[in-house]
Amino acid sequence: MTRSLICATISMLAISTLALAQGLGALVGAVTDPSGAAVPNAEVTATEAGTSYVRTAAANAEGYYVIPSLRPAQYTITAKAAGFRTHSQTGAVLLANQSLTLNITLELGALTETVEVSGAAAQVNTSTSALGEVVDHARIVDLPLNGRDVARLATAVAGVVLQGISGESAKAIPGALQLSANGTPGGMQTAYKLDGANNTDYFFQRNQTFPMPDAVQEFSIQTSNYSAATGNNAGAVVSVVTRSGTNEFHGGAFEFVRNRVFNARNFFASQQDFLKRNQFGVHAGGPVVLPGYNGRKKSFFFVGWQGTRLRDLRSALNTFAPTIDQRRGDFSTCGAPCNRPIRDPLTGQPFPGNQIPVSRFDPAAVKVASFIPAVAGTGFTQISKPVNHRYDQGITRIDHQLTAKDRLTGRYFIDDFQNAGSFDPSNLLSYRQVLAAQIRIQNSMVGWTRTISQSALNDFHFAYNRYHAARGPYFQGVPSMQELGVRLPIYPTLPSISQIEVQGFFNIGDNLEAAFIRNSFEGSNRTSWVRGRHSIQFGG
């Protein structure tokens, strides 16, 4: 066996107390009789309350059992053994990336008799050393969130701080977070997962967008001691699990509005701010019911869509525009911007009285000035830049119980962001640093879980992640550099103004058209095997 093959084999093998992945959890515990003695070979069954999905495990000779790779949900736990009454406990809530210890005591009696225990089980983890916290669905939908950004709830976990938020860019959707966990570099050592698939923008080492709160079941943040199967970063691992349909139909619609009509005026401002933001959407989930097919307890769907419209005014841009005198070549009255002699580039001597003959004007400069209104006095002017953002995101998820041992999952998430630039045909100064961009993120995942036996389980998933960012001017009437008379060896494909700067006066520019594409494929297979007192996971 070659050295590279040996290294690859070692890197694909992970043995741990109970390695969890894809935001899934596990039930562990011991089955005993009233005296505390172990009940070997007891059959323990976990039934998901919402979908009736069933998983079964057998206790070993010492009474220990493990049911790995369970979706975060509420479960009914039953235990059976010959000579004992059937034990049934409802309301056991399993959280994302949680190993829930649930010990069971069987009472002597006939198997046909049932002892029912109601109420939520104590959230105890005695099988792993991972440190972290789970943000459940109730907190996700009930806590106030700026912009309804689920990722911001990560700062509710001890040791996690926010070091920065990405702004407007041509390569990423605004709002991505730079999180630092336990002192690790912000944004560089935090891994983000969506249903087990990568959700990290490796270009900036920040999170890609997560679905709206109504589409998230819960998410966990593990900050240290997580298993090798979970982490590939030194900081935190943020795992988000999307919602699934259940046997009952559920759904909703919403809209959140912020408008200057309702806004209070800042104490130091003369009027209310101009921010207008509307967030609205719908979501629905339930069993797949079609003519001739009833998917209850077998097939489930969840769909959701959210739209965000944001309009605002940026802070005013301070600049100097050409005055009436300067358009005639008279720079003797412009004050501070030209308080030094203007020299003739042909002779090196100052122009008399800082007056440039109009005959010496460059035709391109005259053309540019025709798009800029004349300003009196020193030419100082302020220009407000409008902001017009449009976000749309949608999610679709399908879960299907193919057989008693096989469960299939498919999920597709898309987030589309458009940033409309600003352009005033009568004043090119408003065109400075205009960014007109469209950014689209797509994240898809298919998964297959197969129960091999009561002690073995196989998990497979394949994910495709695409990040496509495109920028470039697309306004009608924007003059090109050629139309302005600028002579360049290479011109952009679309009409645009790349960069025109008059030192000490004004700067006109735009981002030229470009595309930034990041594609990633991810496949993994993980087998869980309970052998005696050991829980082993291996895969690649």
Brief summary of the model shown:
By secondary structure, the protein is mainly β. The protein has helices at 3-11, 137-142, 324-327, 363-370, and strands spanning 13-14, 25-32, 43-48, 54-58, 64-70, 73-80, 86-94, 99-101, 104-105, 114-117, 131-135, 160-165, 177-181, 191-194, 197-198, 200-201, 206-207, 216-224, 237-242, 250-258, 276-287, 289-290, 293-294, 299-313, 317-320, 380-383, 386-401, 406-420, 437-453, 456-471, 499-502, 506-509, 514-531, 534-539.
Structure characterization notes:
By secondary structure, this protein is mainly beta. The protein has four helices and 34 strands. Strands 1-34-33-30-29-28-27-24-21-20 form a ten-stranded antiparallel beta sheet. Strands 4-3-6-7-10 form a five-stranded mixed beta sheet, with no helix packed on it. The protein is elongated, with a radius of gyration of 31 Å. The two termini are 18 Å apart. The N terminus is likely disordered.
The value of Rg in angstroms is: 31 Å
- Helical proportion? under 10%
Q: What is the residue-mean pLDDT, rounded to a whole number?
A: 81
How far apart are the termini? Answer: 18 Å
Strand coverage percent: 35-45%
Biggest sheet layout: 10 strands, antiparallel
Oligomer: single chain
Q: Specify the number of helices.
A: 4
Q: Describe the strand arrangement of the main beta sheet, using strand numbers.
A: 1-34-33-30-29-28-27-24-21-20
Shape: elongated
Low-confidence stretches: 1-21
What's the count of strands?
34
Structural class: mainly beta
